[in-house]
Design goal:
With about 350 residues, this protein is α/β, with parallel strands linked by helices. The protein has eleven helices and 14 strands. The structure holds 5-S-methyl-1-O-phosphono-5-thio-D-ribulose (MRU).
Amino acid sequence: MLDNIRLSSDETEVIILDQTKLPGKVEYLRLKTAAEMREAIMTLQVRGAPAIGIFAAYALYVLAKSIPEQADFNRTLKEIKNSLNSTRPTAVNLSYALERMIIAAKKAGRKREKILKALSGECRQIQHEDIAVCRSISEYALTLLKDNWGILTYCNAGPIATSRYGTALGGIFLGFERGYKFNVYCCETRPLMQGARLTAFELSEEGINTTLICDNMASRVMSEGKVQACFVGCDRVAANGDTANKIGTSMIAVLAKHYKIPFYVFCPTSTLDMNCKSGKEIIIETREEAEIHTGYFRERLAPDNDSLKIYNPSFDVTPANLIIAIVTENGICKPPFEESLKMIIRKKASK
Ligand code: MRU
């Protein structure tokens, strides 16, 4: 498994695995400036809800270190936080991690050195916790799986989107380590191909039986009886269990219901947004048209004229009634989600 986010040894840069270069090249980027860090999130050089949060926390620490002595430290820190937070709207983990950093800074008092020390500890702690969280999600996930099952997954919720095991892929990796044989169907995930480039890469490199399919083949594969469970990650879960994930996820959930295949969502408890009543309140990121009309094609594929419109919503919301369970590090939530999600939040708070 590849190392995805870390600080440079002198702590003046954040080093990330450039996810846009995979699977062709394993290339690391050293990011120093606020502009480079914003760009890394917006262009998906670093992506996946937990990974964005971890990265943003390290970025805030590194940028805080270079706030000039004469500047108002706390105000500048908040400006940097807001700027990082505005890069992508859908994944709650971004604002969650940045908010934790600001709270840590506030608790540290007024002295710059103390605040920097607190920030340095907090970003490491966020990453450290995510490793344990992913491991725990993976253990729960494995209780839902049986040997020789076919599992369909969408987008990428593996180690490079998180820490170590990942969320939706965690149970698969853990099961594989323990001798289970799975057949994993990866949807390629148009338009940015996270399934083809990242999930297929992570699973097949480990030696897990992996089959890549185009997104529009999911129904066919399910109808052939090849899929016993659908496993996906998510970017934000509303209080009623509606779940935002990569565009196309809800299509898989609708199909799964039709074919009576259980559809599971995996996420850290930090992805639960109890301030958001339902999926209607989740902001869906819209991205550049070029991702669709050109994207990974050698040349522009779609007609180039003023009458053609292109719409590129990057996420969709899977309604709670299509989800069998939401699996977190604190347990498995089943419907009614209004109740079970609250219980999980309480369990986390009491730890
Ligand atoms: O646009 P992306 O690639 O960041 O979208 C990512 C997803 O939709 C993932 O499934 C989600 O962030 C969960 S990652 C554990």
